[in-house]
Amino acid sequence: MNRREYFQMAMAGALGAALPARRLEAEQQVARAVRGLPVPTIKDIQVIATQPLGARLIVVKILTDQDGLYGYGCATFTQRADLVVPAVEKYLKPLLLGKPTDRIEDTWQACYNSSYWRSGPVLNNAISGIDQALWDIKGRQANMPVYELLGGKAREAALTYATVGGMDASEAIDKARQMMEQGFRCIKIMTGVPGMAAYGPRNGPQIKGLHPGPVFDSEPYMRHARGMLEECRKQLGDEIGLIHDVHERVSPHQAVQFAKELEPLNLFYLEDVLSPEDIDYFRQVRQQCATSLAMGELFSNPHEWQPLIAERLIDYIRCHLSQVGGLTPARKIAILAEQFGVKTAWHGPPDVSPVGHTAQLHLDLASWNFGIQEGGVIKGVEAEIFTGCAAYKDGFLWASDAPGWGIEVNEQLAAKYPFRDGPDHLNGGWGEIRRYDGSIIKQ
């Protein structure tokens, strides 16, 4: 072997030894590129409490150890808002600080089981704020709207409806026509009985019962509402979808009767004709008539909605997303409902924060069995505090394609609208309504 050959062999050996190291480094670089940044951890959890309009809104903000990465979630339980704040700050925050943000299901289960007694509205709403904020963070990380993380759009936009009220048919019809001119294809019609308290409009001298407070009795309400809905259908025509909310203010027997009487009107749905305590009576309602039924805004426990869906006793499930614990359980409810032909119609009154409305909309877009969405048209000072909300056009809500929920919160402006007490001094809670004889009604 000459000197040149020896040198070539030595160089080849050196290169051979170097190649595995270089290959290993290249593979590690690829792995680091694929992995991206380390999994964020929860650095802080804050609560934004604001009341720009009538309802007390609670929004949870989770900050991570990565600068500029955070998320928002709705935890609004306006009737007991002062209790949700410490539930987040004193109980969930110590449990979650330092934990990774990517394990949303695991975090939800840990929060749900941490109190031992579970499925209560205060805890569920607190968990919802955490849950929705984690979904927001995941969307921001992926640079995708949350509906993309749920499988992508099953539709372009979500049908929504307007709510109007009137003490008589002509008043309700005039208001409904105004909403129809704005593009709404479905209208919820609410009414009251002159002189009585109602979930809806009220006027006239207060009826005196056997007690000094407001009076409500179901028989006059049923007669008045039936007559008004009949006239609305006659005047507005068959093309407009009509909804009516009983708000569980009738007895189980009356619920069966009322649903049967309204069957010829072909309602889009009759809402909350029974209370959660009386859901077994849905079997009787279903056996008696074909009126479309919606139920669920008061549910906080899986054992309430599961039989109604599995036995096909309702047509629309109307859970309040934060009341059941956030997007994670609501997504499972939607998937369960799809298997039994039940559509979604999530609860969306003014006491859902704009973050919560947006979370509902993302689930609407990704759920094949979506039916209709309540609310979601954010205006005025709320739209100034919560930027990036859905756009409304011709009866539909259109989501932003920004990452996460697409919502940013002006916390300085929100702080200018702190919680305030009402004239009844009940801290946002509801007062008493009694029958003529003085007994409390469900509401």
Q: What can you tell me about this protein's structure?
A:
The chain is an alpha/beta fold and 443 residues long. It folds into two domains: 42-144, Enolase-like, N-terminal domain (Enolase-like, domain 1, 2-Layer Sandwich), CATH 3.30.390.10; 148-405, TIM Barrel, CATH 3.20.20. It has helices at 3-35, 81-96, 104-113, 121-142, 146-149, 169-181, 218-236, 252-261, 282-288, 302-310, 321-324, 327-339, 354-366, 380-385, 411-414, and strands at residues 42-50, 57-64, 70-74, 158-165, 186-190, 241-245, 269-271, 293-295, 316-317, 343-344, 373-374, 386-387, 391-393, 396-398, 408-409. It is globular.
Please give a handful of descriptors for the protein shown.
TIM Barrel; alpha/beta; 15 helices; single chain; 3-stranded antiparallel sheet; Enolase-like, domain 1; 443 residues
Give a quick precis of the structure.
The protein is α/β, with parallel strands linked by helices and 443 residues long. The protein has 2 domains: 42-144, Enolase-like, N-terminal domain (Enolase-like, domain 1); 148-405, TIM Barrel. 41% of the residues lie in helices and 14% in strands.
Give me the secondary-structure topology.
Blueprint: H1 3-35, E1 42-50, E2 57-64, E3 70-74, H2 81-96, H3 104-113, H4 121-142, H5 146-149, E4 158-165, H6 169-181, E5 186-190, H7 218-236, E6 241-245, H8 252-261, E7 269-271, H9 282-288, E8 293-295, H10 302-310, E9 316-317, H11 321-324, H12 327-339, E10 343-344, H13 354-366, E11 373-374, H14 380-385, E12 386-387, E13 391-393, E14 396-398, E15 408-409, H15 411-414
Helix pairs in contact: 2-4, 3-4, 6-7, 8-9, 10-12
